[in-house]
Amino acid sequence: MSDIIQLLPDHVANQIAAGEVVQRPASVVKELLENAIDAQATHIKLIIKEAGKTLIQVIDNGSGMSVTDARLSFERHATSKIKAAEDLFQLNTKGFRGEALASIAAIAHVELKTKQDDDEVGTEINIEGSEVISQEVCVTPKGTSISVKNLFYNIPARRNFLKSNAVELRHIIDEFHRVTMAHHAIKFDMYHNGSEVFNLPVTNCRQRIVNIFGGKTNEKLVPVQEETDLVTISGFIGKPEYAKRTRGEQFFFVNNRFIKSAYLNHAVNAAFEGLLKDKTHPSYFVYLTVDPISIDINIHPTKTEIKFEDEHALYAMLRASIKHSLGQFNVAPVLDFDRDASMDTPYEYKSKTAQTPTIEVDRNFNPFKEEKVSGSGSSSFSGKSHTSFKKESAADWENLYIGLESEMTTDKSVENNFSSVEFESTEVTGSLFETDEKKVGHHTTYQLRKKYIVTTIKSGMVIVNQHRAHQRILYEELLRNITMASAVSQQLLFPLTLSFSKKEIELLTTVKEQLENTGFVFGELSSGEVEITGIPSVTSEKEVAQLLEQLICDLESEVPDSGFSQTDLLARSISKSIAVRAGVELVSEQQQYMVNSLFACTEPTITPDNKQTFITLTVDEIDKKF
Ligand code: ADP
Ligand code: MG
Question: Per the confidence metrics, is the pTM higher than 0.85?
Fold first, then answer.
């Protein structure tokens, strides 16, 4: 057999390397911004068109490159940042692999313009798919401008794999945040499709965070500061009362490089233990400075994970310094008056929190609040589904059980499907086993532990989970409203102003239209604040902030890109937020509404998240228990 192994041509090797380095437009943004920082720029401009799909341009006023360096910078393993393997342990730059420009040039049209301070003229190079198209002298200011056009133009599979512009832009903004937060002494601007998205002046660390996340952030921040031989910790944590349902605002930087670390995240959470409401996450912006020799950044090509030499010690110090800040700034005791003064009693505290779920319950919540007023029937609590169910769809009850309860299919008498059984109710004890003719059609329901609604069917009984059932009911109602734009809005007497970060507003904007279809009416939707003048009739004013926050959290974690999945996510998220919780007492009318509306749903058996909404217990099964 002849030899079959050969070396890959450079452009193929570069394309393969690009697969690792460039996953999406945001990866290019990160590499170019980091190169500009490494070049000592003090002003960096990021220009994006169509979420980076057509253009990503970074202009810096840094060192610039000589003619030879400009050409060499596109070669693989060409770097000015390390010379020998030892240098890897003394890294003070973002880049060091010499791979980024070569990779990017392999999969896009790249134009580089660069000039060093003391050169008269600069160099312009055009490269397409690793092939140098032109290299000329040009007039350009000191620094470097790199434009990356038509990313993945020669890898259609990758290009088609890109998500919608909204999603890709979100990734770019994430990357921009991470880089800019780590370099507050550099001025950054960002433009998208010609309009300015961020303008971040040179400032201190705190103000940079505030500039990024919006004006209201300032009051939420508590400084953290600790200096030991091993590490210098600085930065800010968010006060516990501002903890969010989203994990969005959690940042670690090591030597001014954004990193992810589940282990250190755990340390922060441990410091917050007992201070947070259920399912909320603290915000943190923590900057660690360590001796470069004690870390290994080399373990991940996109470099968001690093290895620490003494992770355990770091964990302990981080946890202690955050606890210290929480205590020092008097943040902790405000939350719980009964709390032991000592901050080191997490276990006792844990058991206390277990008794407090009632705090979230809105006892005035009345699913029927709209019924008398509206009559027109657009709220999920009033409306067609409810009334029409009573009138025409009682037989649906039966249909729903076809397949579940085979014996019911033979019995067409609706009346006989329900027997009236009262449990634990004093005034009707006598009629426990009687079938009251007058009550036929008005099925008796009973609420168990403020959590389940129990009612009878011919073959036995149904136990409905009130929270899940309500989710299903609201979900279908919201889906209808969003797709048909048929929701009724409650006008607010005083507009509600909520503050969000630019990124969060960006997210809300992507689903603004659908939100309006649910009944939201927005005023101004920019500059860190959202003005709301109308809300869906199914929700109440005080639920709105939490509803939108949860929605942002869900949008962040799911990143839907098609119209339908956006609508679905929206309906799922909102229905989950506002569905009546366990622990809420429902009067008999509400219980019946819940049961009837559930079974009038297209898919009553499961929640939008595929959880069972009710169970049945047949008389046979009950018989067996005796
Ligand atoms: P790395 O950053 O890992 O060294 P890159 O492929 O990103 O590799 O860049 C290659 C080289 O090109 C860098 O080492 C640097 O010398 C030069 N370079 C890249 N971008 C710039 C810039 N904006 N200004 C000055 N020099 C740059
Ligand atoms: Mg680089």
Answer: no
Q: What is the DSSP letter of 16?
A: H
Residue 122: both structure tokens together: 């600069």
Query: CA separation (Å) from 329 to 222, 237, 282?
Result: 7, 11, 16
- Taking the CA of residue 35 as reference, the ligand 1 atom at the shortest distance is 20
Instruction: Give the position, in ligand 1's atom list, of the atom nearest the Cα of 99.
Output: 6
The architecture CATH gives domain 447-616: 2-Layer Sandwich (3.30)
Q: Where are the chain's structural domains?
A: 10-200, 213-328, 447-616
| Cα–Cα distance for residue pair 465/293, rounded to 1 Å | 57
Pocket flag, ligand 1, residue 181 (CB < 6 Å): no
Q: Residue 435: helix, strand or coil by DSSP? A: coil
36 in contact with ligand 1, CB cutoff 6 A? yes
Q: Is 74 in the pocket of ligand 1 (CB under 6 A)?
A: no
* CATH dotted code for 10-200: 3.30.565.10
| Mutational test site, ligand 1, from 31, 73, 127, max ligand atoms within 8 Å of CB | 73
Question: Distance from the CA of 253 to the center of ligand 2, in angstroms?
Answer: 18
* Residue 291, C-beta contacts closer than 8 angstroms, at least 6 positions apart: none
Q: Is the Cβ–Cβ distance between 304 and 34 less than 8 Å?
A: no
Give the pairing type, strands 250-254 and 284-289.
parallel
Which class in CATH covers the domain with range 213-328?
Answer: alpha beta
CA of 279 to the centre of ligand 1 (A): 43
Ligand 1 nearest atom to the CA of residue 98, by list position: 8
**pLDDT at 367 (0 to 100):** 52
pLDDT tens for 487-505 read: 888 888 888 888 888 888 8
* pLDDT, tens digit (0-9, with 9 covering 90-100), for 380-390: 443 333 333 33
